[in-house]
Amino acid sequence: MRGYKPFGGMRRRLGAVLDAILPLLRIVLPALMLYMLTGHAHKVLIPALDVEISVSAMCGVIAALHGAAGWFGMRSDGRRGRLYELCCSCLATETVLFMYFMGRHFVLSAVLAAVFLGGLFMLLASRKDLERASLRGRLRRGMRRDMILSGEGKRRPPSVLRVAVRRYFAVGAALMMAVPSVVMLTVYGIDGVLQRGNAYAVIDRAQENQIAANRDTIGLLNDRRWVELSDQEKLDVLQVVADIEADYLGIQPVSVVNCRMEEHTIGYYSHAQRRVAIDLAQHEGKSALSYVRTVLHECRHAFQHDCVDSLDWSDPEVQQGIYFMQAREWKRNQDGYVTAEESLSGYYDQAIEQDARDYEEDRLYDYRDQIYPGVTWE
Fold it and tell me: How many domains does the chain divide into?
């Protein structure tokens, strides 16, 4: 019984199974993620940063990270620990899933990244402690041999700090992204399809009411007909609404796209891309008029931006004239915009948000008359 360890045989068998599976994970996991990505012509959208990541870029991330993991694997002498192997195998796939998670929960993702960087800073600050522990033999087996790389047989064995940082990046990053990755796979999924509206309104200059000129398309916003439309067909109808509004407001057209966004964010306007983004999934189950409200609201934001951009702000008349008072208020608001996450009341009380809500409410009646003719609205 001397030297007997409980469950020793089971641990050895489990270790043998893991040793056989881990090399396969490096091939299966990236291949599975590449299949899932190429099977959907989509992009990841991070509204908080106004960043759009293409599927080719994500595939590049997978290839680069797994290439780096494979390179370290070939350079090692086979004495790395199973935890490190497992984390390296999952790292690239988790990184892509974490990008999707950022699109829905940017603030939480930023907090996780800050915690990760904070841990790295603490690791760098404890360099002398690591070296002293290594000299006493406390880290030799746990870090240098079982977890990362052995320095045996090499001309320049890696320093304790380099080993610790390498271990931290592989194991720490994989563990940090584990929960967000599981959430994306089990709760949200990665169907972050970025669809673009294809249909455009017929602008009849001889007819003053462009909504009536597109009566057939606008009629699809009737709830009985709306529920029968696919996401792409809904997006096409909303693109017609956006084109009508661009003509009505006298601005350049804006495109309408459907993309996954953070929870409770059902739409936003990107002036840099002249794009109204709407999350059809978060609108699901609501009246078709709620979609129209969102498009009207965001088109008004496009109008506000165009008004501000069209003025010469070095002109004293623009800076002080009473005729430009509203434009000045919009500009101040845009420069110091308050998000709903920062302050819900501050968000709703902003000049540009109040103006956009007033516009959507007034303009919505014109669409109701065409969608539900003969109905009297209170």
Answer: 2
